[in-house]
Amino acid sequence: MGQVCKVVFISLIFTLMPLSLHAGWGEGATEQWDRFYSQYRSLLHDGKNETAERLLHSRVPDMEKYIEGLSAEDQAAWEHVSRSEEEGRLSETALIFFEVLASEDKERALEQKLMAFHMGMFTVPVDHVIQDWETLEPVVMHVHASAETGQLRHALEHYQLQPTSESAAAASAMVEALINGGSEENVSFIGMTAGVGGFIIAVLFYVGILKHPARSKIRHTIKERNS
Prior knowledge:
transmembrane; extended; membrane; transmembrane helix; 227 residues; signal; 9 helices; 2 domains
């Protein structure tokens, strides 16, 4: 039975390891970037724009170096959005794009951005909603299917032209669909991993039960021979 326990323990490690990576349990570079984003946006909120720009400019080389380690597709997308009209400065669009790319779970990071955007749809003027979407749209298109993003863009433009409760509800429903789509993918992965782990445990437990009576019988036979 002890050998079975060892096998169960090892199987659990290899089963849960991908899950821990997927959920972002580990600490590392992501937390450092999170502190940078928080500090940068805090400076902007306090009206210290020049200090914020200097902070952002000081991290650009690190950001470029980080991007070099990503896939060719990610690098090409970053190159497309990384520069604003003013040469040498990163746009807010590029910063959000990098924030999602540098996270341990891109889908989860984007889901949080979409949730924040969705909450703001009913608290800011419609023109601000469109501006916020234009900042977020490139990274949404990079992570999600372009058809879904295009439909949402069309719904938001309709909302801008005709800001009614119906057009707002239609655009809101499409944002919710993107959010729920990402959540379903995460749930599917976690469910699959948990299912595999549960199956391994059940099989090994069953094997252990079958072997235990046989081992007990052998020990009992040995005792009878020795007595």
